[in-house]
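re the bet — no i am not wrong, look at it urself. input seq straight from the record:
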Amino acid sequence: MEYVFTTADNQNYIVELPMEFMALSKWLSCELGNDKQKIAALIDELNQLCKNHNNNKKWIGHEYTLVLQNKEVQIYSNLIFSSLSEDEAVRLTEENLSLYDEESFSEAGLEDIIKLLTDYLEFMS
């Protein structure tokens, strides 16, 4: 996964990701923002889950939800997916999503997410 960190000023950080990771980028901005403690705590929790082989967890945020299942991470918009059953959501994400829908769903490997968050935290320090 490729990404670039930039800063709009000394307090606002931006993560630029490819289009297929747009929901991930929005999740970082909306749910974590520049909160270094929150990011560090999430990194620790993800690492613990990875070590304990307990790879199933869901974090429901204000606008986006992060789901960890079998070392795969899915991030989806609460607005788009909240009205769907779990089976409907799985079917939707397995089908071709429109450009608009790609902004509402992303998936990546757990190790990639941990590396992204770690690099992001280091960039902000």
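see?? Residues 4-124 form one domain. told u. also The mean pLDDT is 82. so pay up
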